[in-house]
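Hey team,

Filing this mostly as a record. A colleague (T.K.) asked me to run one chain through the structure pipeline before their review meeting, and I want the input and output archived in the tracker in case anyone asks later how it was produced. No errors, nothing strange. Just documentation.

Input sequence:
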Amino acid sequence: MYGETILKIEGLNKSFGITHANADINLELHRGEVRALAGENGSGKSTLLSQIAGIYGSDSGTMYLNGQVYAPKSPMDANDNKIAIVVQELGLIADLPAGINVYLGRTKKFSNHGFINHKKIFAAANAELEKWGLPKINFNRSTDGLNIENRKMIELTRALSSDPDILILDEVTQSLSHDNREVIYELIKKFKELGRAILLISHDLEETLRISDSITVLRDGRAVGTVETSDVTDDDVKRMMVGREMSGDYYRVDEEEIYEDEVVFSFDHVSTNTGLKDVSFEVHKGEILAFCGLSDSGIHDVGQAAYGLVKPTSGKVLLNAENLEIEDAMFSLKHRIAYVPKDRDEEALMMATTIQNNFCVPSLEEISKKFGYVSAKEMREMADKAKKEYQVKCTSVNQNMNGLSGGNKQKVNLGRWLLKDLQLLIVDCPTRGVDIGVKAYIYHVMQEAKKKGLTMLLITDELTEAMGMADNIIVMKDGMVKKEIGRSSHFSEEKMIEEMI
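Output structure:
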């Protein structure tokens, strides 16, 4: 079925302080194989991939690449050995052109007397896009002016530009819309046909089963088993991941639209310079209204315009409950509207400060005393209560955010807003980069908030998420509303994709 062994790992160990992230890992990867790693957040998947990619060194154990001992000292060393990685969190230098980011650290071959020939770099980057069938990118543009999907494609182009034999993908598709995911699937297929290998992590089990040949399951830092994908179901993999039977429904079990008559929020013929064109909709108290579409459909622009981060060039964004027009983000915050963006690390959370500060900052006005004084005791009590309520796994609320797993970051990201008395919550891809257990927990939290009358705009690249959680779904295309589908009409993925394309 597969070709020869390309990578062999024997007894690999890695610790961070008292935490044993990887314990005696054994693994074999073959040419023409797509191997997925599955496991809950904190199971050691990313740590293992980081050692293979030269980001971390190993404490003990041995890796063999094509039969030779392999111990990369850095990602550049791994690249020289034809191994490349695309990590879950973005790793680009914001104020550099996209093309420079592709060849960062390797610009010498495009230089003449110390000056970089940008034209040659951009041509080389475009050649990589064409070679692998990736969507076009303006490589001359500054990276910080690009959306998260384009930035992820730049990282992928950077990895592919080293012509790797092993491509490591850590949660790449979670940042992408349906059409760009299909691009990745075709890339994976091409890699297999060329006799190369892929190691990947995806928290979407349906996707894992679709694109992988085999799955290695990690639990508490140990590899608990490797299975052929064709031999297992998603329930089998879940059971291996958590060590027990997982029961209960992730999504809503009701099949009707359930909400009150009161209209809380609406768009009235809204157009923006970001691409929205004459968008109108209304959302009721206790309703979850989802937005789905392809990469340039405008669904993420809806969230920004709804919160007042983007002003309409025509039309109105209305808080109907108070008969007011949304002015800006501060106005939204004051009127009990919250926004959870897709890119939590760059646009939402304060990664270099504590869990406590992240929990408390949105509520400072509520807990501040005379002359703006904020009690350190009250902040600690609020953060400790939130940590417990939203089941955040950490050493204490004084721990920095950047030490948390993706799932725990997202619990803080959502929880800090749900501490407040909101009337509208805008969530953009709320389960991006979280494991199956955290995903189920987030859906539970959303359903409980809905029961209490909270209105939600759910913007998502996951069709199953929209179908599982929404009362109504708006499918968008080219910045316009293409179709609205109600829960009682029985959503189907095929119907939605048909409208999207």
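Quick notes for T.K.: The first strand starts at residue 5 and ends at 16. The CA atoms of residues 214 and 231 lie 9 Å apart.
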